[in-house]
Write a structure and sequence with these properties.
Membrane topology: Multi-pass membrane protein
Keywords: Membrane, Transmembrane, Transmembrane helix
Strand content: under 5%
Subcellular location: Endomembrane system
Order of helices and strands: HHH
InterPro entries: DUF202
Number of domains: 1
Oligomer: single chain
Pfam families: DUF202
Shape: elongated
Largest sheet: none
């Protein structure tokens, strides 16, 4: 087994874990802003949260795009990650 391949996979997985953590924090902050602030403050807070989250997604994509991994291994992980975002967002906003 090539140790470089394992290092590449660990790096990609760590960037994905970081993005999942940032997504959960962004959703929690959005829920907090929507329930505990006045409407003008809520709009600005949601815009700031969305901007920081979008920057994090762009940074993660840029960092992981430079790393060469086979598409057969990353596509299922990407689908699971997107489904996890949807379920987490729904649970946080509905409850």
């Amino acid at each position: 087994m090539n140790p470089d391949g394992a290092q590449i996979e660990r790096t990609v997985l760590s960037w994905r874990r970081t993005l999942v953590s940032l997504t959960v924090v962004a959703l929690l902050l959005a829920r907090l802003a929507a329930t505990h602030t006045s409407p003008p403050v809520t709009i600005w807070a949601l815009a700031a949260i969305a901007l920081v989250w979008a920057g994090s997604v762009a940074l993660t994509r840029r960092r992981t795009r430079r790393i060469a991994t086979p598409i057969g291994r990353t596509l299922p992980a990407l689908v699971v990650l997107i489904l996890l975002y949807c379920v987490t967002g729904t649970l946080l906003l509905v409850s």
